[in-house]
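A.,

Following up on our hallway conversation. Structure tokens first:
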């Protein structure tokens, strides 16, 4: 998976394109910040941290068994 932050206050978690030709796609759209995302990092396989110009740090747990399902910690 690959992380990306947007100016639209979301963190996107993308799949990676595979050898069989399946294109990359957004698996999770993490929403909760009130400003532009400055940085995102994987803390572990299931946990993501993000920082924003709203002066907050948010930690998210991804439900790897159910795409699009996540919890803000």
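Then the amino acids I'd put at each of the 73 positions:
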């Amino acid at each position: 998976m690959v992380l990306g932050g947007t100016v639209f206050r979301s963190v996107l978690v993308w799949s990676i394109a595979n050898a069989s030709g399946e294109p990359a796609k957004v698996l999770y759209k993490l929403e909760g910040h009130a400003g532009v995302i400055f940085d995102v990092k994987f803390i572990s396989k299931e946990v993501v941290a993000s920082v924003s110009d709203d002066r907050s740090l948010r930690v998210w747990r991804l439900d790897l068994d159910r795409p699009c399902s996540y919890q803000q910690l």
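The beta strands are 2-5, 10-14, 26-31, 37-42, 47-52, 57-62, 70-72. Curious whether your intuition agrees with the design.

B.
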